[in-house]
C-alpha cells in the first residue's frame, strides 16, 4: 500500500503552516522528512495518519492494506505514549483488545513482537522501570503487533540520549532488513535521516514547502559511520537547512 | 465511474486510491459560552413556573421573582450595604490574617525540616476539626465582638493555606535552587528570588480554596453575636423560615464567591503571566 | 397494635414531660395512637420537621420561624403547654457577675446593657424586648445561636443579661459566675411560653387523631402537675414521676444527680392544653412590630382555636 | 606544613591547592519523625500543667487528663460506639453518594463540551454556598431522618469531587489519547482504558479533600434531629459548655480525619503504584 | 586555575556510584566526560562544583582564580535553569545582584554578554518566548557574566534538537576561540565530545571508573564534519562504550 499526498496546504486560523505539498510514499521504503522547527512536520504526519484533516488537498492511500493488517497506519511517538499503569505486555495487548484478539491469540502475537524487539524478559515490567530506550522498543513492539502497512514515526529517537539513539537505529535497520516495512520518518537529525532514509524530503521554514528530495541508494544495512558518500549528503543537507534552522531558532514564540 | 462499478472491483483493488479516514478529534473541550447562561435561565424559569403554578410548594422553594424583589428592596433600603460592609470587613481581615499566617507557616515548613516535622502532624490533626464545633470556645477565647469572627475565619483559612503553601514550596523546581547555589547566591537570596516566586502559583491556587472556605465560614462566624452581616441575615432568615430572604442571602454569598474567584484569576493572570 | 402510628417531636427537657407521662402511662394508646418519639436538639428544626411531615405533633415556643411556617400554610398551634404563672418558679432573668458588681442588680438597670439571645425572633428576643420595654431600657441584643454560646458569653462577662428556664438558671447562679436579678413572670404576666402544634393538614383533616393526641397529652399533663406541683402523691409521687422523666431527660447522669435538676425544672403545664390566645396575640404583634414577620398575619393564621379552651386575658 | 606558614604565602599563591568549598545542601526536607510526637506531648503537657496550676482557666481549656478520662468513660459505657456507628454510616453513605455522583458528573463534564458549558458555572455558583445556611431547606426536602443527613454530606462532597474529577480528566495526557485514536481504539475503549485510569490520581487526591469536608459536615448534618452521632455529641457538649466532652468529640473527629487520610494514602499506594 | 580530582569515590547508602577517580583539568582546555547512563557523570560534576561532597577523595582547586572572577566554578545545566519569571536581562542580573553589582555596572556586563551570545535583541523577552536553543544561549550568557574560571557543563545540548545542537556547538567553538576558557563538559554524545573536547574521559558503567582518556590535537576551530581522524576517534569511542551502553539501557530501574 502506498501513500500519496496531493497539494496539501494547511493553516490554523490565519496562521499558515504548510503550502502545497505533494508527495509519494512508495511501498517498502523509508521516507525521511527533515526541516527546521515549526515547519509543520508533525502536522503533516498527523494528516497522513488521519488524526487531523488538511484545509486543502488530499491524503490518499493507494491500494489495499494486506488482510492481516489490523491498523494500516500506525504511529510511533516521540514520547513513547505508553500507558504507565499497564505492563509491557499489557500495553501491547491494549491495541489488540479492540480487534477482539484475546487470550492465547493475543499471547502469541505479544510473544512474537517482544522476541523481535528483544524484550521477552521485560513482559511484566511497568514503564516506570524502563529506560527511555527500552520504552521506545516497547512502542515499536506495540506498533509491530498490529502489522501496520505504513509506520508513521515522529522523531522517535529524539527523546533519547545519543548512545541509546545509536543502538535503536541499529535495531530499526535490522528490523527493516529482516522484513522491509513502509515508513514515514520525521526527524531533526540529519545523521538519522542519512542512516535510515531511502529518500529524504527537505522542507522549508514555515509555511513548510518541499525544497528538495534527496535519494540515497546505499542499502540500509551497508550504511556505515564515516561513509564519505553519506557524509557528503549529510553536509549537503546541512548546507540547505542551516540558515533556516538558525532563523527558526531565533524566532520569538507568542505564548 | 458509477456505471462500471460492477465490472471494476478486481482492477480497482490494485490501484484503488481513497483518502485516509479521519479518526482524530474529540477529547478537547470546546468553549460554548452561552450554554451556561441558558442552563441558569432555564432552571430559574422552571422554578418560577413551578412556584406560580403551585406544583412546587412554597415550603420547598421561594418564587425567583420574589427573591429578586427581596434583593431590590435590600438595595433600595440600603440594608444590603449595612449587611455587606461588616461581612466584607470580617472576610478581609479574617482571611488576610489566616492567609498571611498560613503562608508564613507554610514557607517555614517548606524550608526547615524541624518545623515541618513538628507542625505538619499538628496541621493534619487540626484540619478535620469542624469550626462550628468550636464556636462556644471561640466566644471565651476571643469575645463575641469582631475578634471571634476574625479568629474563626482566620482559623478556617489558615490550615488549607499552610498545606497549599508548603506543597508549593516543595514543588519549586529543585534545579532552579541548585542553579542559585551554584552561582553562590546567599540563602536569603535563594528564598526571596527563587523559592517564593516559584511557589507563587501554588500559593495562589491554594488561596482560591482558602477564600472559598472563608466565605463559607462567614455564616458560622456570624452565628456569634452579629447583628448585621450577610451570614447573620441568612441565619435570621433561616430561623424565621423566610425562604425569600434565605435565598437572597445565599445568592449574595454565591456572587461573592464568584467575584473572589474572578479577582484571584485576574491576579494570577497579572502576576503569573510568565507561565507558558 | 391496630392503633394509628404517629410521630411526636420532643426535646429532652422537663417541659416536655406531658408527652412522656402520656406515653409511659399508655394514655396515647388508650386514645388509639401508637406514638413514636423523635428527639431534637433544638426547637427550630422541630417546627420545620412538622412542616415537612416528618413529625405530627410537637411542643415548642412561639418563634418567628413558627409564625412564618404558619403563614406558608404548613403548621397550626392547637394548644398551650407551658405558661408563666406568678407564684410558681418560672424563667429567671440573669446578670453576669461583672455587670452585677457594676450595679446591674435588678432589671431596672438594664439600660445600655447587652442581652443574649439565640437568634433574632427567638423567645429570648421576645422576653428581653418586653422586659426592656417595661423598664424603658435601651438594650442591645446579641444573637449567639446556641444556649452553650450564651452561657459562655454570660460567664465570661461578654454579655450582661439573659433570661432562661430555672433549672438552667439556678445551677448557674449557684456557681457564682452569674446572678439572678428577677423573674420573667413579673414582666410578661401569663406568658404562654410553649404551645402544642401540628401540621395544618393534621389540624384540618385529621380531627380525630388530633383530638386523640390532645386527650392523651392532657392526661399526662394532669398527672405531671398533680405529682410535681400539687404534690398530691407526696414524696413518693414525686419520686415516681422523677423516675419516669429520668427515662427521657438527663439520661446520661445517674438518678441521684438527675433528680435535683428534674425537680428544679418543674413548671406548671397548661391543664387540658388550654391556650392563652391573648399572650399569643401579644407575641405575634411584637414579632410584627419588629418587622420579623409579615404585618398582615392574623391570629387565625397561626392558631386553630377549635381544639382547646382558650384563655383570652 | 604548619611551621612554614608565614614564609610560604607568595610561593603558595601560584600552586596553592585547596578543596573546593561546599555550597549545596539544604532545601530538601529530611524526615524527623519523633519531632511531631514531641510537639504533641509538649502541647498536652503544657495544657495539663496550666489547667492544674490554674494559670489556664477552666473556661479556656479542659484538663487533658479529664478529656482522656471522658474518652475512657465513653468507651467503657459503650456510648462511644453508640455515637460512632450512626456517624460512620452517615459518613459512608453520604460520602459514597456525593463522591460517586461527583465522579460521574465530573467525568461527563470532562468528556462533553456541552455538559461542561452547562454545568461548570452551576457548580461554581453552588460551591461557595454554606451548607449550614440550607439546613432548614434540607429538612423540608429530605426529611429529618437519615435522608437529610445523607443529603447534606453528599451535597458537601459532591462539588469538590466534581471539580477535582473534571480537572483530572482534563489533565490526562493528550498524547496517550492520540495514541489510542491512532490505533483505532473505540471511543469507549479510550474512555475506559486511557481516560479513567489516567484521571485516577487526580480523582483520589480530590477525594482526600472531599472526605475531609464530609467529616466537617458531620457536625452540621447532626444539627438536624440526630440523637446519636459524634456531631450530635459535640453539639450537645457545646450547648452545655461541657469542654471535656467537646474536646473528646473533636478529638474523635480529628482521629477520624487522620484515619480516612491514611486509608486514602494506602489506596493510592496500592492503585497508583505505577506512578514513578 | 586548574582542578584536580584525587581518588574520588562515592556511594549513596550502599549503592556505589563511582570508584577511585583521579583527574586533572588543566587551565584553558575543555575536558569532555562520556559514559553510559547512570555511571555518575552528573554526580562527578556536582562534586567539582561543590554542590555535593564525595564520600572519599578530594576535589582541589589549584591556583587562585583571577581577581575579576565572581564565581570561579560556574554551571551550565541541561534544562537551562532560567527563572521563568525574569526576563533574559533579569536572569543575568540575578547572578550579579548578590555581588552588589547593580545599575550601570550591571547593565554594562549584561549588554556585553548578550552581545557575545548574539542576544542583544532579546534582553526583554521572557524565557517562555524563547526556543530551547535561545534559552541555552541565555544560560551561557549568564555563565559568562560571572567570569568563571571553570565552566561546568552537564549535557548542555542534550535537551535541544539536533539542528540547534549543531548551531550551538559552532557558537561554543567561536566563544572559546575568541577567549579560551576552562571547561568540564559532560555528554552522552560522542560527536559533541570529538567536536569540543581537548581530551575525552571515558567512564565505565556504574560504579564509574576511568577506562580511557583520549587526547585530540586538532585545534577546535579546524574540526570539520567528516574529518577522518575525528571519525576514527569517534568510532573508537563507540567501540569502547557500545556494549556498556546497551547493558545500561537494559537495566530495570527500581523506582
Ligand atoms: N493545533 C494547533 N493550533 C494552532 N497552531 C498549531 C497547532 N498545531 C501546530 N501548530 C503550529 O503549527 C506549526 C507547525 O507545527 P508542527 O508541530 O507541525 O511543527 P514541527 O515541524 O513538527 O516542529 P518541531 O520540529 O518543533 O516538532 C507550529 O508553529 C505550531 O505552533
Ligand atoms: N541523590 C541521590 N540519591 C541516590 N541515588 C542517586 C542520587 N543521585 C544520583 N543517584 C544515582 O546515582 C547514579 C549516578 O547518577 P548520575 O546522575 O550521576 O548519572 P549520570 O551519569 O549523570 O547519568 P545520565 O547519563 O543518565 O545523566 C544513578 O544510578 C542515580 O540513580
Ligand atoms: Mg514536531
Ligand atoms: Mg546526568
Question: What secondary-structure arrangement, pairings included, does this model have?
Answer:
The complex is a heteropentamer, with two copies of chain A (255 residues), two copies of chain B (276 residues) and one copy of chain C (313 residues).
Chain A: E1 2-12, E2 15-25, E3 30-34, H1 41-49, E4 56-62, E5 73-76, H2 88-97, H3 103-116, H4 132-145, E6 150-154, H5 162-178, E7 182-187, H6 190-196, E8 199-203, E9 210-215, H7 228-249
Parallel strand pairs in A: 3-7, 3-8, 5-6, 6-7
Antiparallel strand pairs in A: 1-2, 1-4, 8-9
Chain B: H1 9-15, E1 17-19, H2 33-53, H3 64-77, H4 79-111, H5 113-126, H6 135-142, H7 146-170, H8 174-182, H9 187-221, H10 230-239, H11 243-271
Chain C: E1 4-11, H1 17-24, H2 27-30, E2 33-40, H3 43-52, E3 57-61, H4 64-71, E4 75-83, E5 92-96, H5 97-101, E6 114-117, H6 123-135, E7 140-143, H7 147-155, E8 161-164, H8 166-174, E9 178-183, E10 192-199, H9 200-205, H10 207-228, H11 234-246, H12 255-264, E11 275-276, H13 277-289, H14 299-302, E12 310-311
Parallel strand pairs in C: 1-2, 1-3, 6-7, 11-12
Antiparallel strand pairs in C: 3-10, 4-10, 5-8, 5-9
Helix pairs in contact in C: 1-10, 8-12, 11-12
The complex binds adenosine-5'-triphosphate (2 copies) and magnesium ion (2 copies).
Helix amount of chain C: 40-55%
Task: State the secondary-structure class of chain A.
Answer: alpha/beta
Tell me the Rg of chain C in angstroms.
Answer: 19 Å
Distance between the termini of chain C: 43 Å
Q: SSE order of chain C in H/E notation?
A: EHHEHEHEEHEHEHEHEEHHHHEHHE
Average predicted local confidence, pLDDT of chain C: 87
Domains of chain A (count): 2
Strand content of chain C: 15-25%
**Largest sheet entry of chain A:** 6 strands, mixed
Number of strands of chain A: 9
Mean pLDDT of chain A equals: 92
What is the oligomeric state here?
heteropentamer
| CATH architecture assignment name of the largest domain in chain A | 3-Layer(aba) Sandwich
Bound small molecules, deduplicated: adenosine-5'-triphosphate, magnesium ion
Amino acid at each position: 500500500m502506498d501513500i500519496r499526498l496531493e497539494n496539501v496546504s494547511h493553516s490554523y486560523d490565519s496562521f499558515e503552516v504548510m503550502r502545497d505539498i505533494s508527495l509519494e510514499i512508495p511501498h517498502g521504503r523509508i521516507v525521511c522528512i527533515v526541516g527546521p522547527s515549526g515547519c509543520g512536520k508533525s502536522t503533516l504526519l498527523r494528516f497522513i495518519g488521519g488524526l487531523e484533516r488538511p484545509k486543502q488537498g488530499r491524503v490518499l492511500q493507494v491500494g489495499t492494506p494486506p488482510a492481516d493488517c489490523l491498523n494500516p497506519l500506525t504511529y510511533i511517538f516521540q514520547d513513547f505514549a505508553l500507558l504507565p499503569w499497564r505492563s509491557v505486555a499489557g500495553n501491547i495487548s491494549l491495541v489488540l483488545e479492540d480487534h477482539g484478539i484475546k487470550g492465547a491469540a493475543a499471547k502469541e502475537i505479544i510473544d512474537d513482537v517482544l522476541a523481535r524487539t528483544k524484550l521477552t524478559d521485560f513482559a511484566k515490567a511497568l514503564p516506570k522501570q524502563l529506560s527511555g530506550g527500552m520504552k521506545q522498543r516497547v512502542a515499536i513492539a506495540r506498533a509491530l503487533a498490529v502489522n501496520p502497512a505504513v509506520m508513521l514515526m515522529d522523531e522517535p529517537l529524539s527523546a533519547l540520549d545519543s548512545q541509546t539513539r545509536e543502538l535503536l537505529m541499529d535495531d530499526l535497520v535490522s528490523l527493516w532488513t529482516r522484513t522491509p516495512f513502509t515508513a514515514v520518518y520525521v526527524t531533526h537529525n540529519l545523521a538519522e535521516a542519512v542512516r535510515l532514509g531511502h529518500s529524504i524530503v527537505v522542507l522549508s521554514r514555515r509555511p513548510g514547502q518541499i525544497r528538495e528530495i534527496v535519494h540515497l541508494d546505499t542499502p540500509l544495512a551497508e550504511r556505515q559511520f564515516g561513509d564519505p558518500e553519506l557524509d557528503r549528503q549529510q553536509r549537503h543537507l546541512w548546507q540547505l537547512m542551516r540558515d533556516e534552522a538558525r532563523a527558526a531558532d531565533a524566532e520569538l514564540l507568542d505564548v | 465511474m458509477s456505471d462500471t462499478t460492477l465490472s471494476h472491483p478486481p482492477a480497482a483493488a490494485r490501484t484503488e486510491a481513497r483518502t485516509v479516514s479521519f479518526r482524530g478529534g474529540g477529547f478537547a473541550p470546546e468553549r460554548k459560552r452561552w450554554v451556561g447562561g441558558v442552563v441558569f435561565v432555564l432552571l430559574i424559569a422552571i422554578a418560577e413556573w413551578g412556584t406560580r403554578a403551585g406544583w412546587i410548594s412554597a415550603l420547598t422553594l421561594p418564587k425567583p421573582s420574589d427573591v429578586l424583589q427581596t434583593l431590590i428592596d435590600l438595595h433600595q433600603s440600603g440594608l444590603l450595604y449595612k449587611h455587606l460592609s461588616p461581612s466584607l470587613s470580617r472576610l478581609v481581615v479574617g482571611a488576610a490574617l489566616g492567609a498571611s499566617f498560613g503562608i508564613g507557616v507554610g514557607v517555614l515548613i517548606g524550608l526547615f525540616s524541624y518545623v515541618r516535622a513538628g507542625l505538619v502532624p499538628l496541621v493534619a490533626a487540626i484540619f478535620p476539626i469542624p469550626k462550628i464545633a468550636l464556636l462556644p470556645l471561640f466566644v471565651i477565647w476571643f469575645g463575641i465582638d469582631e475578634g471571634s469572627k476574625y479568629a474563626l475565619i482566620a482559623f478556617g483559612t489558615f490550615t488549607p493555606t499552610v498545606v497549599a503553601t508548603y506543597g508549593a514550596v516543595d514543588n519549586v523546581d529543585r534545579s532552579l535552587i541548585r542553579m542559585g547555589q551554584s552561582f553562590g547566591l546567599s540563602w536569603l537570596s535563594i528564598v526571596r528570588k527563587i523559592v517564593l516566586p516559584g511557589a507563587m502559583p501554588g500559593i495562589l491556587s491554594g488561596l482560591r480554596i482558602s477564600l472559598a472556605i472563608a466565605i463559607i465560614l462567614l455564616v458560622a462566624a456570624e452565628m456569634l453575636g452579629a447583628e448585621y452581616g450577610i451570614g447573620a441575615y441568612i441565619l435570621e432568615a433561616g430561623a424565621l423560615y423566610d425562604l425569600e430572604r434565605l435565598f437572597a442571602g445565599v445568592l449574595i454569598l454565591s456572587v461573592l464567591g464568584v467575584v473572589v474567584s474572578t479577582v484571584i484569576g485576574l491576579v494570577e493572570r497579572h502576576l503569573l503571566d510568565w507561565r507558558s | 397494635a391496630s392503633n394509628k402510628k404517629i410521630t411526636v417531636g420532643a426535646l429532652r427537657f422537663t417541659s416536655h414531660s406531658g408527652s412522656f407521662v402520656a406515653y409511659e402511662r399508655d394514655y396515647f394508646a388508650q386514645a388509639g395512637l401508637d406514638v413514636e418519639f423523635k428527639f431534637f436538639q433544638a426547637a427550630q428544626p422541630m417546627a420545620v420537621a412538622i412542616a415537612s411531615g416528618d413529625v405530627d405533633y410537637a411542643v415548642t415556643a412561639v418563634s418567628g420561624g413558627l409564625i412564618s411556617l404558619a403563614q406558608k400554610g404548613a403548621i397550626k398551634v392547637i394548644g398551650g403547654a407551658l405558661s408563666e404563672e406568678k407564684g410558681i418558679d418560672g424563667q429567671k432573668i440573669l446578670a453576669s457577675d461583672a455587670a452585677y458588681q457594676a450595679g446591674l442588680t435588678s432589671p431596672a438597670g438594664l439600660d445600655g446593657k447587652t442581652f443574649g439571645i439565640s437568634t433574632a425572633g427567638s423567645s429570648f428576643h421576645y422576653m428581653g424586648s418586653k422586659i426592656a420595654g417595661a423598664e424603658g431600657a435601651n438594650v442591645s441584643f446579641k444573637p449567639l445561636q446556641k444556649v452553650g454560646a450564651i452561657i459562655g458569653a454570660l460567664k465570661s462577662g461578654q454579655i450582661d443579661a439573659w433570661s432562661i428556664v430555672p433549672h438552667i438558671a439556678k445551677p448557674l447562679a449557684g456557681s457564682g459566675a452569674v446572678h439572678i436579678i428577677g423573674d420573667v413572670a413579673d414582666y410578661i404576666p401569663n406568658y404562654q411560653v410553649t404551645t402544642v402544634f401540628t401540621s395544618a393538614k393534621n389540624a384540618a383533616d385529621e380531627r380525630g387523631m388530633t383530638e386523640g393526641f390532645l386527650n392523651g397529652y392532657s392526661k399526662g399533663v394532669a398527672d405531671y402537675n398533680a405529682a410535681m406541683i400539687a404534690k398530691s402523691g407526696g414524696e413518693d409521687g414525686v419520686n415516681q414521676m422523677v423516675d419516669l422523666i429520668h427515662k427521657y431527660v438527663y439520661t446520661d447522669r445517674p438518678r441521684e444527680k438527675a433528680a435535683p435538676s428534674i425537680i428544679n425544672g418543674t413548671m406548671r403545664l397548661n391543664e387540658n392544653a388550654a391556650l392563652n390566645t391573648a399572650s399569643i396575640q401579644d407575641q405575634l404583634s411584637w414579632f410584627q412590630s419588629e418587622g420579623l414577620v409579615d404585618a398582615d398575619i392574623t391570629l387565625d393564621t397561626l392558631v386553630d382555636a377549635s381544639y382547646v379552651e382558650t384563655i383570652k386575658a
